[in-house]
Queue: 4 jobs
Job 1
Amino acid sequence: MKKTVKTLVAAGLMVAAASSMFAAKKKAPAKKLITVGYAQVGAESDWRLANTTSFKETFTEANGYKLIFDDAQQKQENQIKAIRSFIQQDVDYIVVAPVVETGWGTVLQEAKAAGIPVILSDRQMTGVDDLYLCWVGGNFLQEGRDGVKWLEGYLKKIGRDKDEINIVDLQGTIGASAQIGRTQGIEEGIAAHKNWKLVAQQTGEFTQSKGQEVMESILKSTPKIDVVFAENDNMAWGAIDAIKAAGKKPGKDIIIICFDAVHETFNKMIAGEINCAVECNPLHGPRVDEIIKTLEAKGPKGIKSKIQYVVEEVFDQENAAAKLPTRKY
Ligand code: GYE
C-alpha cells in the first residue's frame, strides 16, 4: 500500500536478480515483512485478552508480518500517542480498536499525511469516515436487541411477561461503540414494554472489579431488581459476586444477561448463574490479516465493503452445555 505495489515489485525483482548472482553461496534473503502497528484498548476483559491473542497469533513473522503492539490501558490519550509513534516508525499499516468513538480527527489526519492506511477493528469511530479504509467488528446495537428479544421470550416462558420488571443496566466504557449500541438496545426494549422499568444505569467500565463495586452499591439502594443487563461478561461476573454477597441467587432471584460469551460465561450458564449470553466475537486477527492481504494484492479497490459486521449468536442455559465444546474463546 504505502510502499506502493510498484516499488514492492521493483524491490522484489532486484532481490531476485541479486540472489541469483549469489545463488551458489547464499540463500535468498527473506521477504520483507509488513509492519503493522496495533493500538489496542487495554486488557480490561477476557474478550480483550482473546482479541490480543488473536492478533499476536496472526501477525507473526511466519505469516509475513512484524507486529508492534500497544496496550493503551483504556485511555484514548495513550492510543493517540501510540498512533503517533507508529507514524514515526513509518509502519505499513495502522490498526486501531478505538476506546471511544469521537476525538480522532487530528491524529488520523497525521496518518493520512504520512500516507499510512488505517484499519479499524472492534469498536468504531465517528466523524472521520474519509480517514480510515474499513472497519470490522460486532454489531453492538443488534447484540443489545438480541438480548432484549431473549428476555421477552424468557419472561413469557416463565409466565412473568405481564409483571413489573425492574432492570439494572451495567454499562461499558461510556462513549465506546459496544456501550453505545448495547445501551441503545436495552433502552429501546424498555421503551417498548410498559411493564419494564430501568431502576439503575451506571458504568462498570467493562471490568469485573468495577462491575462488582457498582452492583454492590446498586443492591443497597434498589430494593427490587429482576434483571441485570451487563454490557459484558466480566461485569456480569462481578455483579454475580455482589448478588451472592447480598444473599440472593444470581440466575434465579435475578435474571442475568451479558455480552461476549467467553468460556467462563458458559460455565456460569451451565451452573445456573447466568441466564443468557449474547456472543461478541473477538477473533479479529485473521479478519484484519485478510483485509491487509487484499490491500497488498489489489489496493483499496479490493475492499468491497467499508463496514464489515461479524455474524453472532445468542446462548442460554438450554444450549450452553452442548455449545461449550465448540467455542474457540
Ligand atoms: O464486549 C468488552 C470489551 O469492544 C466489543 O470491549 C468490545 C468490548 C467487549 O472490553 O468485554
Job 2
Amino acid sequence: MNSKFNRFELIKSAIDSLNFSYAPYSHFNVAAAVLASSGKIYTGVNVENASYPAGICAERNAIFHAVACGEKEITAIAIVGGLNGQITDYCPPCGVCRQVMREFCDPEHMTVIIAKSTDEYKEMTLAELLPESFGTDSIV
Ligand code: THU
C-alpha cells in the first residue's frame, strides 16, 4: 500500500472533475484522479458515445491522460461517481479498468480509493481487487 500521499487532495481532484463527465446515455457520471510516481495528479471522466462501445470509463481516461503526459507509473487512484452526478454510494472500478491499472503499477503498492466524499472513503490495493493478475511480467 502506498500510504504517504494526500488522500484529501486526490479525492477532491476527482470530485472537482465530476462535472466534466459526459454521460448523456447512462446518466451515470464517474470521475477519477490518478497519482503518478512523479507526484503529479491526472484526472479523467467517463466519456460516452452514441455508438455505445466507443465510450470510455473515467479510470482509463485518467490513466491514459497520465501516460500521454509522459508518466509510466501510477501509485494511487481515487474514484467517485453516481447517477446524475450525485455521489450516493461507492463506485468501484470495472474489470477492464483494473486490468489497465495493472499495466502501470506494482499491484501490491497501488492504492485504489473509492469515495463518497473527502472524508468518507474505502481504500484497498490493486492486488486485492485483481488477484493473480496477468501483467507485462507474465509474458516475458
Ligand atoms: N463507468 C466508469 O466510468 N467507470 C467504471 O469503473 C464503471 C463504469 C462508466 C461507463 C459508463 O459511461 C457509465 O459509467 C455506466 O456504465
Job 3
Amino acid sequence: MYEDKYKLSLHNSLTRKKEEFIPLDESHVRIYACGPTVYDYAHIGNARMAVIFDVLVRILREIYPKVTYVSNLTDIDDKIIAASEKSGKDIEEITEKFARIYNEDMAALGVRKPDIQSKATQTIPEMIELIKILIERDYAYVNDGHVLFNVTNFDNYGKLSGRSRDEQIAGARVEIAPYKKDPADFVLWKPSDDGQPGWNSPWGRGRPGWHIECSAMAEKYLGLPFDIHGGGADLKFPHHENEIAQSCCAHGKEDDLSAFARYWVHNGFLTVNGEKMSKSLGNFTTAHQALEEYKGEVIRLTLLSAHYRQPLDWSDDILIQNKKVLDRFYQVLYSMSDIEIDENIKADEVLEALCDDINTPKAMAVFNSIERKNDVEYKSKLLSAGKILGILQENPAKWLGYGQADDVDVNLIEKLIEQRTIAKKAKDYVRADDIRNQLSAMGISIEDTPDGVKWKKL
Ligand code: AMP
Ligand code: ZN
C-alpha cells in the first residue's frame, strides 16, 4: 500500500528525539500546521514555515497514498481589530485582502495550498463547544465575561516546551488581569464591546482567544489523534502548549499528550544578523518585497538551504548563491531540451536524504552530485527530485531569459544574429564584433552555446 522502501524519521518536539514516523493509518496521513494572522503582508520568516511544511507534505505524498494537510488563517485577533481601527477599513476587507495576498505569494514560492485552509471565523461554533466541555470538566472557569483555562488543574502543563512555572508566567507576558485566578491561565473567550466583532455565546457576546481555534479546527477536519502538528519554534510556548492543554483535557487524555497530535515538528527561526525576523523588531522583508527582486524558486531554495531546525540568516549573498545554483541546473536542462524523461526513474537518493528529518542541505548535496551517465536518467532524476523540493519547475529557456523580451524587435535581433553567424563563418570578425556591439547597444546580450547562439535582454 505504501512505499516501504523509504523510512521517514522526524524530530519530535514532544519526545525531544528523532523518531521513525509511523502513521496512525498508513492509508491516510493527517497533518496540521499553524498558519498566519492575516492583517498584513507575511514576512520571509512566515514563508519559511510554509515552505518547510510544503516540502514535508510532498515527501509524505511520495510515500503514502493519501495525505490531508490542514492549516488555519487567523482572521480574528486583537492585532486585526487594531489594524481595522487604525485604517478605518472593515475587518473582512483586511483579512480577505491579506489572505489572498498570502496565498498568491506562497504560490509564487511553489507552496501548494493546504487541502483545507480554514479561517478561524468559520469554526466559532466548534470552539464554543470545546470551551463548554472544558468548563464542565473543571479545566476552565468564567470570570467577568471571560473564560479562562485553569492551568493549575492540568499537571502536564509545560511538558511540550519544558518550561518551568516561573518561565511559563514570564513567557505568557501577562498584563495585570483581575479576571485570572492564576497569572499563567490563558484566555479561551473574551467579551467584545459594541464596536468590536463578536459572536453570541453562553458567556455573552464575545470572541475566541487565539489558541482555541487550532484545537477546534484540527479536531474538526482531521479527527483526534492525528499524525503531525507543525509550526515555527516560537509557537511551542504558549500556543502549542495551550492547544495540547485544551484538546487533551477536553477528551480525558490528561496523561497522554500524544492523544492530540503524535509528532510535533517545529522549524527554527529565520534571522537577520542573528536576530529573529519579526514584525515587532521591524527587521523584516515581506515575501511580497522579496518576490519583486528574486524569482520564487530562488527564495524557496534559499529557505531550504539550512536544515529546518537550524536558524537561517537571511542575506542577499545566500540568495545570489542559490540563484547561481538554479541558473546552472536550468542551463543543464536547457541543453537537454530534446530529451524525453522517463517518469519511472526517480531520484531515490534525494528522497532518502529528505526522509532523514527533512534534511534539505543533505538532499541538495546529493542532488548536486547526481551523476550524468545517461541523459534520460539524469534529466528524469533532476526533475523528479525538483518536484519534491519544488524547484526546476519552470521552462528553462524562460528562466534563462533566452529569446524573451516584450519590447524588442525579435525579427531584427534574429536577423542580426544570423548575419553575425555568416560573418563569423567567413572569418569576418570585425563585422561579427560590430553586430555584437550593435545588439549590445539595443540592450541585447548574446551567448554562443553548443546549441547555437542564444540572446537575452540585459
Ligand atoms: P504569525 O503570523 O506570527 O502567527 O506566524 C505564522 C507562522 O510563521 C508561525 O508558524 C510562526 O511560528 C512562523 N514564524 C514567524 N516568524 C518566524 C521566523 N522569524 N522564522 C521562522 N518562522 C517564523
Ligand atoms: Zn495553531
Job 4
Amino acid sequence: MVNRRKFIKNTSLGGAFLLAGNTFADIIPVGNITTSIDNEPIVISTWDFGIAANAAAWQILKNNGRALDAVEQGAMVPEADPKNQSVGLGGLPDRDGIVTLDACIMDEFGNCGSVAALQNILHPISVARRVMEKTPHVMLVGNGALQFALQQGFKQVNLLTPESEKDWKEWLKKAEYKPVNNIENKSFSPRKLPGNEYNHDTIGMLALDSKGNLSGACTTSGMAYKIHGRVGDSPIIGAGLYVDNEIGGATSTGVGEEVIRNVGSFLVVELMRQGYPPEEACKEAVMRIIKKKPETAKEVQVGFLALNKKGQYGAYAIQKGFSFAVCNKQNQELLIKGNSYY
Ligand code: SD4
C-alpha cells in the first residue's frame, strides 16, 4: 500500500510508463493502460479534493463493498467540507445569495436518481439515492426535492458559510448581477486556498467494485453566482454522469451548459462501447464541444473523466489544469493532471 500522495503531470506519454514521485520504484502505468488488475476495485474522481473523497470510498471498496455505497460515501466528503466552495456546505451561492445544490447517482443496474436546485440539505447525493431507491422517479427539483428530503428524515441546515457570503457580496460589487463563466485556472478560480492551491468544481466519482460492478456519483453547488433556478449538467443523467455496467462510466466538470448540449457523459460511454480507450473517448467528447462552438470553447472549461469495465481510466479537458484522483490497491492517493486541448 502506498500512502504517500503521488502526483503525475500528464496522463499520456505515448501510452508509456509515467514517473510518479522521484524514485524508479514509483514508475507505474497510468492513463489508458490499466493500473488495475481484473476484479480489483478502483475509484476515481475529479479534482484534487477527489483524494479525500476516494479515501472514504476506498474504505468500502477494499472490504468488497458495493460501488454504489462507495461513491455515495465518497461524494459526501466534499459535500460536508465547508472549505470547498463548489460542493455542498460552503458552496458559492447563486447571484441572489442562495446556495442551490445539484447531484445524481447511478448504479450497476442502470437505476438512477437525481436532485436539482435543492436548498438547505447537507447531502444531496444521499437524497438523489433515495429518489432512486424510494420513488418511481428519476429527478426531483427545487422545493419538491426539499420536501421529499425532509420526509425522508434529512435535516435542514444553512449551507451559506460566512466566507462564501463574503465572497458573494464582494462579487456583487462589480458583477452587475451577471452570471459568470468559470474557467478552472488561476485567473478565473473563485478562491485561492492556502498552499497556493485553487478551489475547483464539481466532484464526479466513478467506482468499480470487487464484483466487477460500476457506479457513479456527481454533486455540486454548480456555477458560482448563477441565475437563481439555473441547473447545470451535474444532476442530468447522461450529461454530468452516465454508467453502463457493460461498458464503463463517465462524469464531467466545468461549464454544464456545454456538457448538456452534447450529452457529454453518455457520449463518452458510447464511444468506449465503440472501442475508444477512456482518455480518447473523453477527448472526442471535448472535441465535439470545441467543434460546435470554437469561440465559446476558448473561454470555458469542460473536463470529462471515464472508467471502463476493465478498470482503465482516462480524462481530457478543454483547458489546462484539470486534475483527477485515483485510488486502488496499488495507489491510495494518486493525483493525475489530465491532458487538455489548450
Ligand atoms: C455546473 N458542472 O453546474 C457544474 C459545475 C462545474 O465548473 O463543474 N463548474 O455546470
